[in-house]
Design a protein that fits this description.
Length: 228
């Protein structure tokens, strides 16, 4: 499990075929993962992957065909957000994130909120109080899980949705505000209209939807009855 609070940023320096998927090498370029070891779980752009090899500052991961189909695919040279797995004694600063990316969305808008003193790009506005509006179009399969003032992970970053607008085709557009710190400390500061991002919907929303659908279809398990 993860929290969606990014601890480091890396860059995919190698990507080669491995099994039915690929093996990627990620160099940590900013931040610290606290001494990762082989076998550790790391959220890479929001996707939970296992460290299979370490060479200096480079961590290697295997990504299966299923993982590649659900995510942006970890293109070589691309920057990725990184987070080590949550310990049971750790603070839960963001929200519970499983690292199981549900699908991808497309950035529909990325612009400064009127009146900002900072600038898009993050690094120069880390101390400012301004924010950037990010709007993302989510696919039909994920639309029903996204609610106003709910939680969502975008490229592994825990965010709170502001608005959700349903479209006639079943898709949904949600908006979030990115503060200067988030822009500076994650890859979200380099987003642009048309960019594709990994999405993980709220964990509880998935289970509640499953239970609701089972109940409506009449296949829900019977309630436990007390022994007599």
């Amino acid at each position: 499990m993860f929290t969606g609070i990014v601890r480091a940023v890396g860059r995919t320096t190698a990507r080669r075929p491995a099994g039915d998927g690929v093996r990627i090498a990620v160099d940590v370029t900013r931040g610290d993962l606290g001494g990762s070891r082989i076998g550790d779980s790391i959220a890479v752009a929001g996707c939970c992957l296992t460290v299979v090899a370490i060479a200096g500052e480079s961590l290697e991961f295997d990504a299966s065909a299923e993982t590649l189909a659900r995510t942006t695919g970890f293109p070589q040279g691309g920057a990725v957000n990184l987070e080590s797995a949550l310990r049971l004694a750790d603070r839960l600063d963001g929200h519970l994130v499983s690292g199981h990316v549900d699908g991808t969305g497309v950035v529909a808008a990325f612009r400064e909120v009127a009146g900002n003193a900072g600038s898009i790009g993050g690094a120069g506005s880390a101390g400012g109080a301004g924010s950037v509006l990010l709007a993302v179009d989510a696919p039909e399969a994920l639309a029903r899980f996204i609610a106003p003032k709910g939680s969502i992970a975008v490229d592994g970053v825990s965010l709170t949705t502001n608005t959700v607008a349903d479209a006639p085709d079943g898709t949904a557009r949600f908006t979030v505000n990115l503060i200067a710190h988030t822009l500076a400390m994650t890859t979200l500061g380099s987003l642009f209209e048309g960019a594709v991002v990994n999405l993980e919907v709220d964990l509880l929303a998935r289970y509640l939807d499953r239970l609701r659908r089972a109940d409506e279809s009449g296949s829900a398990p019977r309630r436990n009855q007390a022994w007599t």
